[in-house]
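Q: What residues go here?
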């Protein structure tokens, strides 16, 4: 499997970018860089994505998300810093080595499908394999397999314009899957879709990835999407990563007012689970029916129906994590005004 590591990465657009990096390092803010004719798109970004992790990058429009993801696979050259893929520095790779790395290790899914209109769906999906020199049989086999994975069996000989937006985005995903790379880069891949289709695609990605175990770097400006998909979330603001954490960590302790503002609208009761409150010091009565660690707090609260006793919480292997008291659940839910109202209605 492939790991991705980013070290002190910068991208500054404009004249004399290297000089502007030095100025940023000495404390220059975005305004000063702008006055010098530059744009600080990515500033001092560092993180590591674990194998098999889904790492979400989110932030407002213009915060540098696309610039960041494009440096990961060498589509853009950083002004400073390093990107290590399996320990190898992408920023030092020549064009040919870089292309091979992209073909073998990292596929990208774009927001705007980027399908070839004059090629069939199957040919679009197999395109990366064709560039890599795969024969027709191998191409057909792998492309068909990828189409099946995204639920488009039988659509291979159609053309992109015969498909709906959601289906086209599935083709884009299938193309990335057909390349059989360990890493998927997804830049606002679902953002253009209707809410219902978007949700379907998210579900499909979650299902698929439970099977395939890819490392995914997923960009979105949609917090709900970030929280559904991400093992961890990096919050970007004006080029900088201001916080990296699980959805829960970010909700519980937003690093600054920007992040707090961003997460303000999220319904905590959907994100917080029994695991959040499972306390090993609390003992449930013997014989009490355990609940799964992933049970959303709101659901759990309703299920308890006013019972006062603690409930044991177990993980996927039925190991006891602790117990949770209804009072603790009520308190956690009450921190969000909306939810407290709903809870007292219930
Ligand atoms: N090629 C370029 N030349 C000059 N400035 C650029 C270039 N590409 C991006 N920028 C600027 O860099 C900043 C970051 O842009 P980027 O596209 O990475 O943001 P983003 O977070 O992906 O935004 P969005 O959510 O709108 O896609 C913006 O101010 C943008 O205008
Ligand atoms: Mg973008």
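A:
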């Amino acid at each position: 499997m492939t790991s991705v590591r980013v070290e002190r990465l910068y991208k500054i657009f404009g004249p004399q970018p290297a000089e502007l990096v030095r100025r940023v390092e000495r404390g220059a803010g975005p305004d000063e860089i702008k006055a010098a004719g530059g744009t600080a798109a990515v500033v001092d970004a560092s993180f590591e994505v674990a194998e098999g992790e889904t790492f979400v990058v989110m932030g407002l429009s213009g915060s540098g998300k696309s610039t960041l993801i494009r440096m990961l696979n060498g589509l853009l050259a950083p002004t400073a810093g390093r990107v290590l893929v399996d320990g190898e520095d992408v920023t030092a790779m020549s064009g040919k080595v870089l292309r091979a790395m992209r073909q073998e290790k990292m596929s990208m899914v774009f927001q705007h499908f980027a399908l070839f209109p004059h090629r069939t769906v199957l040919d679009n999906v197999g395109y990366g394999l064709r560039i890599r020199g795969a024969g027709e049989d191998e191409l057909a086999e792998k492309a068909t397999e990828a189409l099946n994975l995204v639920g488009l069996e039988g659509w291979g000989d159609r053309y992109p314009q015969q498909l709906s937006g959601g289906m086209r985005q599935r083709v884009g995903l299938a193309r990335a899957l057909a390349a059989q790379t360990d890493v998927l880069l997804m830049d606002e891949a679902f953002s253009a879709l209707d809410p219902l289709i978007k949700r379907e695609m998210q579900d499909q990605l979650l299902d698929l990835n439970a099977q395939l175990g890819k490392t995914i770097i997923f960009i979105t400006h949609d917090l709900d999407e970030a929280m559904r998909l991400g093992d961890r979330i990096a919050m970007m603001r004006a080029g900088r990563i201001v916080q990296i954490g699980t959805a829960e960590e970010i909700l519980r302790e937003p690093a600054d007012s920007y992040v707090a503002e961003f997460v303000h609208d999220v319904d905590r009761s959907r994100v917080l689970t029994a695991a959040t409150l499972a306390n090993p010091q609390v003992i449930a009565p013997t014989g009490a029916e355990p609940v799964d660690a992933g049970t959303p707090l709101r659901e759990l609260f309703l299920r308890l129906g006013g019972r006062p006793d603690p409930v044991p919480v177990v993980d996927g292997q039925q190991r006891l994590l602790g117990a949770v008291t209804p009072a603790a659940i009520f308190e956690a839910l009450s921190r969000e005004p909306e939810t407290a109202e709903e809870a007292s209605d219930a």
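A: Context that may help when evaluating the design: DSSP finds 17 helices and 13 strands in the chain. Confidence is low (pLDDT under 50) at residues 336-346.
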